[in-house]
Amino acid sequence: VQVVESGGGLVQPGGPLRLSCAASGFTLVYYTIGWFRQAPGKEREGVSCINSSDGFTYYAGSVKGRFFISNDHAGNTVYLQMNSLKPDDTAVYYCAVGRPLRGWFDQDEYEHWGQGTQVTVSS
User: Fold this and answer.
1) CA distance 54 to 109
2) What is the mean pLDDT of residues 62-74?
3) In this model, does residue 25 exceed pLDDT 90?
4) Quick check: 14 and 85 in contact, CB under 8 A?
5) Which of 17, 41, 33, 120 is nearest to 71 (CA)?
6) Mean pLDDT in residue range 95-122
7) Cβ atoms within 10 A of the Cβ of 36, count?
8) Are 5 and 34 in contact, with CB atoms under 8 Å apart?
9) Contact predicate 89/48, CB 8 Å
């Protein structure tokens, strides 16, 4: 069972970036996939998640309208399209897979985590 993020990098303010979360060893369609991020000196926070079985999506207020989460069942991959990036979006972004019941961003309810991918927004 493995979850691997990719697509991070350096981007200028206002630019776009797309992150990918690929799973192996299990099928994402039975899970909720969440994107979390951790900036230097801050706690890890929820960004967005998608329930793969019904397509329900949820976003943190700080990214709503700029970030969009989607899934590709055939490729067993989830994407996070990030637009209008700001320096405050700079963080390590993590993909996590689980079946949260108490809260969409309750990190204890996500079973499988990737290693993270660095996103840096700077001119």
Assistant:
1) 19
2) 94
3) no
4) yes
5) 33
6) 94
7) 23
8) no
9) no
Phi, psi of 20 (to 5 degrees): -120, 145
Instruction: Supply angle C-alpha 26, 30, 36, rounded to 5.
Output: 85
| Contact of 69 with 46, CB cutoff 8 Å | no
Given a cut of 90, whether residue 89 has pLDDT beyond it is yes
Phi, psi of 16 (to 5 degrees): -105, 160
Q: Do the Cβ atoms of 52 and 29 come closer than 8 Å?
A: yes
53-57, Cβ contacts within 8 angstroms, sequence gap of 24 or more:
53/29
Tens-digit pLDDT profile for residues 36-50: 999 999 999 999 999
What count of residues does the chain have? 123
In contact, 82 and 114? CB cutoff 8 Å: no
